[in-house]
Amino acid sequence: MNHSSTFLAAAADDPYALVLSSFMLFMVLALFGSVFAGLRGDSPPEFYIGDRQGSAWKNGLALAGCYVSTSLLLSVTGVVATVGFDGITAATSVLLSMGVLLLLARPLQLSGSLTLGDLFSLRAPGTAPRVAAAVATLAITAPYLVAQLMAAGNVTAALLGFSGIGVQQMCTVLIGGLVVTCGMLSGAKGLTVIQVIAAAVTLVAMIFASLAVLRLFHGDVATLLTAADAHSTRPGRYLSTGGLFNVGPTPRLDFAAGQVMTVLGGVCMPHVLSRVSAAKDTATARRSVRYATGVVALVCVTVVILGMGASARVGAGAILSGQSNADDSLMLVAGSLDDGLGSGTSRLLFTALACAIFLSVLAVVGATTLAAAAVLARDTYHHLVQRRQSDPTRELMVARIAVLLFGVLGILLAVLAQGRSAAFLAQLATAVAASTVAPVLLYTFYWDRFNRTGLLWAVYGGTVLSVGLALSSPSASGGSQAFLPNADFAWFDHGTPVLVSVPAAFLLGWAGSLVGRRRAHRQQAEDASVTTAALLIGRTAATAAAVGRTTGRRPSD
Amino acid sequence: MRLSAQPPKHHRFPDHPAQSPLSQARDRAVHLDLAFLVPNALCFGTAVTLIALPGDLLATRLFSTDMTVGLSLYLLQAVALLATAHRFDRRSARLLDPLQHERAEANATAMPVQQIGGFR
């Protein structure tokens, strides 16, 4: 008997010992690697986004690592498993949002921004845009962090074989503590290591699990689809829309708005934008996004296959028994592969998937915490409190303290919210990102006349509308699956606030710019035109062209 | 409102003599962006419209196979994204990346970037 078969036999004999020991070993190695990578002395920019030295492949994997969250791995798999087509649509929208990121990669890298405040200040210098950026960043990152920490607590407790709220809360505290410590010590350089490992492990584990599911159906996707249809919550209508949003006056419109939210909001998360800014040049930024798109595409395909597999092998009834959501689908299908693979290999696959989910949480939570800390330290402390005169060492210390405070606050909120709907919080974060950051970025990069008034109207209007309408929707209160099931103050009868908040934010940005334009003089308008060019072709090229324009010669002469 | 992504008619041709080098470069960038954006936006718009419309067209099976209109549309979106992303990257590398290097070498005495636009 060779080493491999001995190992698999041991795995079959004592599955939990193998799972736990492999899991712990893997986590310790990943955290050690990240802290070791970040031990060298940091400047504040290096702490926020890294040293800008990575190759396109490394950046692409890191981008995929901070983009593939538990929302995609657990929630979308669950939606595919239970209702079918709407989950496939959601997975496609996640992929399509990478296209928006590809479009934004060049101007993002050329802007040289470290935080959302730097991006907002491109068109509108001053303190007000930085305050607006801080408000938007915290409104996005706080619910997103809490949702990810809650998911981490659930998965770890399930891995240990527990399902009680108390154990989940304890796991949330432990994992949150690990991530915050890692973020404080290593900064973006260390988190890059975790993100690269997370993307690689997730991709490999998901591909192997999908192949195992397909093998059980002899590679026949049609048979898998038929079995998934038969065991879903909607037999005979598995490939029809309407499974996810089926309440309210306009469920189809709500669902379509949800897709727009995913496409715009997914890429406008501050930690994702920082990751693209971290590329060393535009070519690297573009290639990073391309490679990340490939990785995300593969993960989305595997999410769909595993969702169908969960429905076919476990059944939607068993997945939903005693649960308010189907987030356990992925681990349930991984645990149901014994008869196809043998129990040893099946356990290894289960462990690999658990590690992948845990690493995804580490990568996303770390990046989210760092993005929030960066906006607090740079936009608030450096630019507002110290008037851009702060000492770099002191700014770095403030950033580390901000990581600690924001992380601890996130852990506390996650503990309080444990057992409630994490999907509501993730959707809230995405809705705020789609309603504030997306309009500002698109206007900043592509419309010369966008100015400070338009920016402030779009950011504050988008934030108030998205948060207010989300809190007034049936997802927040008034139902057994709502975030606050015992309260009922829902009056906005739609599944998602972006139906109103995204068009309103774009309109507010446009109207505010028209109002603000009356105050601007011609020189500012010309500068805005050059700013647009600089964001599209680079600062040096735009500067050279501007010199050519003012001196009446071609810059290349 | 005129978006800068919609250049006026005399700016259609990148090397038109009436254009400044700045607007030439800028138009080149905008054309590249539009070439990538339009097919993907059309696919996504079609899918979203079909979702929002009443009826169940997306669940209609194609030629009595297991493939439905919805599945094939989403497959098309994914393929279109990957194909246009590859093309976008190649064309950007050919048309825009050299521009930055050329200007950087030729522009040692250029105006500081802080003096234009909102950069600092």
From TrEMBL, chain A:
One Pfam family recorded for the sequence: SSF
What GO annotations for molecular function exist for this entry? Answer: acetate transmembrane transporter activity; symporter activity
* Keyword hit for Transport: yes
Instruction: Please give the start and end residues of each transmembrane region.
Output: 16-39, 60-81, 87-105, 131-151, 157-180, 192-217, 294-320, 348-376, 397-417, 423-443, 455-476, 496-515
Single GO biological process annotation from the record: plasma membrane acetate transport
Cellular component terms, GO, for this chain's entry? plasma membrane
Q: Where is this gene product found?
A: Cell membrane
Keywords in alphabetical order, please.
Answer: Cell membrane, Membrane, Symport, Transmembrane, Transmembrane helix, Transport
Membrane topology category: Multi-pass membrane protein
> What's the family?
Belongs to the sodium:solute symporter (SSF) (TC 2.A.21) family.
Q: What is this protein called?
A: Cation acetate symporter
User: Which species is this UniProt entry from?
Assistant: Streptomyces pseudovenezuelae
Q: What is the lineage of its organism?
A: Bacteria, Bacillati, Actinomycetota, Actinomycetes, Kitasatosporales
